[in-house]
Amino acid sequence: MMKVTVSRKAHFNAAHRLYREDWSYEKNNSIFGKCNNPNFHGHNYELIVSVTGEIDPETGYVIDMKILKDIIKSEIEDVFDHKNLNIEVPEFKTLNPTAENMVVVIYDKLKRKINDSLELEVTLYETPRNFVSYSGL
Ligand code: NI
Q1: What is the CATH number for 129?
Q2: pLDDT of 67-94, one tens digit each?
Q3: Cα separation, 121 vs 33, whole angstroms
Q4: Distance 91 CA to ligand 1 centre (A)
Q5: How far is the CA of 111 from the centre of ligand 1 (A)?
Q6: Ligand 1 center to residue 117 CA distance, Å?
Q7: Which of 65, 85, 87, 100 would be 16's cystine partner, CB 3.0–4.6 Å?
Q8: Predicted model pTM
């Protein structure tokens, strides 16, 4: 069976703070360092959303890129861009907004909107050199 992967890049800016309420300030600092700044800090996040599946013989598409673009905008960009993740995104009220936790939240939001016959993989860049990937495994 021939499967092809199509990918779309997206971008958002967001602020966060990494800490645990149940840890002392000292312990948070020793684990999270500068990321525990009580006044938050921002990142320019880059997102790569990859969808794998068979080519539809009628359209020649795996997924219509316009539809994928709209899903990424409504599910991720509109929810995350220029937001304080800890305060404004409900998923991170009690979940540390690390890149690892973020990529799982992003995957789950997109997965709900994409046909079950398609495989999804999400890669999130927190910095140009640090990135994480999740494909539901
Ligand atoms: Ni950070």
Answers
A1: 3.30.479.10
A2: 999 999 999 999 999 999 999 999 999 9
A3: 30
A4: 17
A5: 25
A6: 35
A7: 85
A8: 0.95
**Side chain identity, residue 123:** T
Q: What share of the chain is helix, strand, coil (3-state, %, to 5)?
A: 35, 30, 35
User: Among 35, 43, 75, 121, which one carries the catalytic annotation?
Assistant: 35
36 band by pLDDT with thresholds 50, 70 and 90: very high
- Residues 98-120 have pLDDT tens digits of 999 999 999 999 999 999 999 99
For position 95, what pLDDT does the model report? 95
Residue 126: active-site member:
yes
CA–CA gap between residue 109 and residue 103 (Å, rounded) = 10
Tell me whether residue 16 is one of the annotated catalytic residues: no
Count of domains forming the chain = 1
